[in-house]
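re the bet — no i am not wrong, look at it urself. input seq straight from the record:
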Amino acid sequence: MPAPIRLRELIRTIRTARTQAEEREMIQKECAAIRSSFREEDNTYRCRNVAKLLYMHMLGYPAHFGQLECLKLIASQKFTDKRIGYLGAMLLLDERQDVHLLMTNCIKNDLNHSTQYVQGLALCTLGCMGSSEMCRDLAGEVEKLLKTSNSYLRKKAALCAVHVIRKVPELMEMFLPATKNLLNEKNHGVLHTSVVLLTEMCERSPDMLAHFRKNEKLVPQLVRILKNLIMSGYSPEHDVSGISDPFLQVRILRLLRILGRNDDDSSEAMNDILAQVATNTETSKNVGNAILYETVLTIMDIKSESGLRVLAINILGRFLLNNDKNIRYVALTSLLKTVQTDHNAVQRHRSTIVDCLKDLDVSIKRRAMELSFALVNGNNIRGMMKELLYFLDSCEPEFKADCASGIFLAAEKYAPSKRWHIDTIMRVLTTAGSYVRDDAVPNLIQLITNSVEMHAYTVQRLYKAILGDYSQQPLVQVAAWCIGEYGDLLVSGQCEEEEPIQVTEDEVLDILESVLISNMSTSVTRGYALTAIMKLSTRFTCTVNRIKKVVSIYGSSIDVELQQRAVEYNALFKKYDHMRSALLERMPVMEKVTTNGPTEIVQTNGETEPAPLETKPPPSGPQPTSQANDLLDLLGGNDITPVIPTVPTSKPASAGGELLDLLGDINLTGAPAATPAPASVPQISQPPFLLDGLSSQPLFNDITTGIPSITAYSKNGLKIEFTFERSNTNPSVTVITIQASNSTELDMTDFVFQAAVPKTFQLQLLSPSSSIVPAFNTGTITQVIKVLNPQKQQLRMRIKLTYNHKGSAMQDLAEVNNFPPQSWQ
């Protein structure tokens, strides 16, 4: 058989291929020749054939048929054969294949070989693909080589020991005696791998971490090595861009970070050296920036002095001025992590951070936007909002939703005046109205309602804002609601804050009618407009007949929502005209009640004050009917009443027809069925009209407290707690707030909580604050349940939980019978 071609010739031949098919044909032809050679047990050219096979493997072609040939090369006495054999084993074998176990004896023999390079090959292979069984069998040999005086073998043995510890953590103590003298080595390769080994041991075992802190006095040794690196002169062997061995410096800084975390003595011992590194490292090259970044992370993670932390933040501030986008991004991300603990130090770099909002890179823009919102407080709210509103005007569409939400939250918390608050939110609605959250409209309406002295100013501003432009639907909805409520103030021209405009009743109605017929108006917006026109029948005096005509026209609308409203309003004109003025009177001041959970004292942007827990916006649609029915079928029995879904806050509630359709002909109470009220209003005896489109405001005021909370469910890391409130105005109603927390290491996604109660109760389940339960108890999902218990019976509830965790869909049922007597008596 002729000698096979060399690897160099094969590479040259393959590179001449003009098409993928031609290359594939060459590879298949050469693979056939290699297989024939393997079958003939050709020892002369086995090494050459395996080398060619590895090249084909690198190109993406199958090479598994060469695995046993690699083992034969490893067993050979020639170094060139062993080198290719071990390389092939690292590329073609892994611990999932039983073939690799045949190597154990060969590796053990080579670890005791007289030639250091053969021992190095064996250590590299074991450290690359050794299974837990191989690591257990060969850990003793690795530990012996770790104690040898040969620095070439010690550095490879240290890295191999890292792999052994990762595979078999219980073998960690075996390597403890060998680590005592590793840091006394002068060879930088041994020092580097030793620090890697010590880092792995400290990260995996708290006992090892405590041992190295107290018994081994590891921190002073690391400080000495780091100081020598900083103070040493030029060393051509380790110099990178004028800095002595930056890779070793970075590894030492990471290990110091682990040792100093939550430890006062260790942190104090490394404060001085960290200050030296931060001040003496050259920043003109990327190598120096890498060391400074690790230094900053270490300073922020240990219990360092306040001056040192300010120095670290100033380094990040200098990073923001760097031309390299990656360095700027890293600086913004690091500042975002530290802004809560060192707020004042970060505030000094506010102007630089705001400048990053103008960066062309979208990643830097997003980080700068998040950090800018984190820096907002009562002292800088006007200046920061001016910059953020300018950013909102010019940013890409994918930023507008998050930016608008951030402006709403900041304005609500730090607004210097109600007029400024209203102007800011109106500016957002004018600029990015299509991107705001669903709760923006009711929140602004509530703000306007509570600002009694601003009613004339607000309705005039909104009227001018929507003249001829209906593209921003949330703005049009707010404007329609305000015109309906305060149209008389608009016509009378009573605005004192700015020059009043002269508007007639017909001009106001023209605007609302054009909203009704505009192609840009959604069904929700038309509902707002029609309700506003109806309200104006009691505010205006000269246009009542026109209003009647408009309302009667929409009594035959193809939009069921509009048709239902128009029919009800027509009935109000004809049958209940004596009640019209009372039913359509101006809305009272709305009290804001937080239904997403309790408040807590949080440290925010340098100021301590009560603030609601941050929650995600509720889902925009009602819960599907099938969820309630599925739960009803699952729990069984005819004494269970289904869950009543809530109406979303961004949609004007209908006249109760949707709820009636959802529940069908079920008689929930056993009494004659009353016309149901809107879902967010707990009273049963409401009239069938919904006249103002804002039924989302909770009516549970004057809440009494003192009812003990209970744990309703605790399993697989998921914990559900119930807290209770009773209404003084309606003692039969109990408000239950559930809090779901997750103690596992991964988030629980798509979380859905469902509940059902016996037939003698009525239950309403409001929208949850989120659908993700964060890991490690870093946050909770809150959801409110309202239970009507007119007969004062003992409360019982069945719950169903569904969520995704670790890639699997989870589902569980539970029954809660341990409600405290105060919650239902």
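see?? Residues 437-582 form one domain. told u. also The chain is about 50% helix and 10% strand. so pay up
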